Amino acid sequence: xxxxxxxxxxxxxxxxNRWRMLDLFSVPAGGPVAHGIVAALSDExxxxxxxxxxxxxxxxxAGTGKxxxxxxxxxxxxxxxxxxxxxxxVVTYTNKAAKEVRSRLADRLGKASAGRLxxxxxxxxxxxxLRRNAAAAGIQNNFVIADDxxxxxxxxxxIETLVPENAEGRAERINHLAxxxxxxxxxxxxxxxxxxxxxxxGRPRRSDEDERFAAIYVAYQHELERRGLLDFxxxxxxxxxxxxxxxDVLAIEAGxxxxxxxxxxxxxxxxxxxxxxxxxxRGADMFVVGDADQSIFSFQxxxxxxxxxxxxxxxxxxxxxxxxxxxSQILKPAxxxxxxxxxxxxxNLRSDREGQEVGVAINGGxxxxxxAVVGQIxxxxxxxxxxxxxxxxxxxxxxxxxxxxxxxxxxxxxxLTGGASITDREETRDIAAYLRLAANPHDDLAFSRIVNRPVxxxxxxxxxxxxxxxxxAQMPFYEACIRHAGDPAARLAPGxxxxxxxxxxxxxxxxxxxxxxxxxSEELVAMTCATDGAGYGAYAARGNDRKAKRRVENVAAIxxxxxEEPDIVAFLERIxxxxxxxxxxxxxxxxxxxxxxxxxxxxxxxxxxxxFDGGVxxxxxxxxxxxxxxxxxxxxxxxxxxxxxxxRLAHVAFTRARQSLWVSSPxxxxxxxxDPSCFLPESGLDLTRHFDPLVDPSSRGGPKxxxxxxxxxxxxxxxx
Length: 720
Known about the structure:
It is built from 31 helices and 20 strands. It is an alpha/beta fold. The strands form 6 sheets. Strands 3-2-6-7-1-8 form a 6-stranded parallel sheet, with helices on both faces. The radius of gyration is 27 Å and the shape is globular. It starts with a helix and ends in an 11-residue tail after the last strand.
């Protein structure tokens, strides 16, 4: 433990086997723990953490201490079983989770031991293997990871090439394919479909649409290869194929692993399951932790059976059933709802905390419901809650504007989460594009991004001409800029020629700094931001408003990452893979407004779930796309999504609440009548009782609720 932080009395604290691992260091996302210090490990957690079976599956329901159990398992391996930390590989769902686990282990084992653990997401571990074995994988070892923006642009280019010029309705067809094809192909990669599978002789013909997508897939992969790019889906898929086809690489990579631990196993896709099995195929023990009832990412290839497939038929199963987050009143409807899903045994979650009944409200239209949300928050704050302690969780983002509008009118501070990530920030993509051009001065995607960032007065015609000049002559972009600026036929706008000359000179300068002087990432970022460089720092700081402040903060964050990752390839990879992480909450003292999907892994004292009506949850689109195929199917993927995943999503939303939960439905949406979601009666919430909070400021248990009559009953909802 940190003696300087806690003082000398802590140095003599004896923690027995039964009571060790008191989590004194961390606070769950969303606010402080309700009871102060987190309790000791339960018997269930301890049994799982110290299990001796070679295959262990820990079913950890919401709020049961999954991360603490994982941390204790790793600590047990290193301390009690003397496993070298570098022989332990830990797979987390996000980089943020990896950072949290490593931080806790630094407290548990010391920074040196924690730093030797091999830890990261499936994507980052796969990238690590591919870079070490690039030649065997048939790729460049300095490959760049394409972000979604790059990927979408390449998809469109391929589609425009494949759709005939004289095709009827060509523009509409291209737009349709540019939306539908990337979605299908990204799923195929999650399911393990390769272009070799597509080009295999004698394979059965698929539907016309699948065949069109397949042709686009092949063209897209060839274009990525030509540019030295891999997209996110390629990372795990190519690493898996490499390990399956190259015994020597498999022996080296898997042979060094003695223990493989997989967190959030329910979110793994088919390729990740194969990848994990290969990593553990040379004698490694596997420890899998997660909760199939929190499998909510089928659109990313996840499926509920992933946990069982990771553990295998011989795995020993442990169940964590004591929820230390929610009250019994919150937990009951959450568990009741998912027990409607097909399952071998009913879910068992319990709480040793009592609290208030779940609030249920039936409102008029969307505006009236938003007004009710504002009223709930005001009453919670009046009862002593802080804005940081409150979250509004919705199934779909289209319902947020009505809530935002009334929040602004009521002067309720709030922050939207659930979409922005490090790679979604304009500043990140811009600066990364400059550094990509330093490493590869022929990168046309990067050039197209920065040619007018900062503004240089170059229109689309000029940009196209420069790109065309560079590609046809196979010259670097810094040379193409200089030549185009000096070409009288270019007819550039006044001042644009000088700006273009300056850009060409700067791109040449950073390329030489990297190739001849081995400049580090921090120096290249500084050059890009400097006034005598690209001038990006002043460009980001333009204006004098909140957006300008955010842009400057973003640039500062990128500079910090560059300082931590001096190697440019490692820097660009970290930037790309950090796209898995949502932004940290920036505005303190504000209500969180989030989608249910983005709330996964977070918790708050008070959670409000408006828009709980049938047109929103279950999502009609999710119902249409659910239950596609079966496990192992590389074209259709495993069965997933649909009504059962929508129930799991509501279960996740409910179990984010520590003290109080409020659920509401409007009676009108977009001028049409809407009914409460069928999930309300399925969860056992009584629609004949309409609850509104009556605040008791002296109460520490959260808001009180009063029953009111309502005309909405259970009629029309039936268990199937």
